[in-house]
Amino acid sequence: MGKMKAAKILKEIHPERVRYTAAKGIFKEGAKNRYEKNLQRWYLDNSTEIKIDGVLIGEDEFFDSSTAKTIETNKIDLNGILLNESTFIDKELNQGRAIIEKTLGSDLNRDTYEETKTYIDYLESRKNDICNNHTRTTIKGFSTSLSEPQQKELFKALSGNYIECSEAEFLAMFSDTPKPIKWIDTSTTHPTKPNKQTIFEFIYLLSEFQHIVLPDLEKGNKANLFRVLEFLFPEVENFANSSGSGKSQQNTQRQKELRRAIEKLSLID
Prior knowledge:
With about 270 residues, the protein is mainly alpha-helical. It has helices at about 5-15, 30-45, 85-105, 110-135, 150-160, 165-170, 195-210, 225-230, 255-265, and strands at about 50, 55, 70-75, 165, 180-185. α3 packs antiparallel against α4.
């Protein structure tokens, strides 16, 4: 369902639930209330299914606001990917930080600056809560056929060029208690940011050689894979929004280097 149609539906059904930022970007609501309303709007704009009072509505259906009591979305986008709250938070953080940069030191925009800063603090707190909750309850590393000597050899091959972590932290990605890993390979187009594509190359090559099992891919659902990657590589943003949903690219220099490193593991007992 398109963004314009979703927005139109929400306005027609519950106009009192939609609060837009004022023309000058001043946030009128508390941080928590604003977060909840923006998140609801984001789900509505990007979900493929919307239910009104438990009834699925079609592309061209509209309902009287006097009869609508609840609005539900399936939280799945047009690519079949589960909408991730962390992705929404990253989007809001980027927008908020842009406002902070523009209003810093301005007496005229002091209210905008302070209210945006409060909102950013709430977003960062919420993101930490989500990360901690995933750590406690949902995130496990990859099941692997690699022996411990092979895992250690792979760590040596990646250290310094692709990863910056201890051997124990790296080996934990193949356990039920994974640890965050710093990915230091950078993008050619964004040299200050970690290169998401090489992370995908690495993970998909491990899968291609049947060294790991990727969660839920047999069902065509990559949401759990993205969730694991977000935990393992916390400095990397928006795995779910990657071009081509993170498909491996053939014949890039980094892909060849990673392939050679993984091929050599077969020589180790």
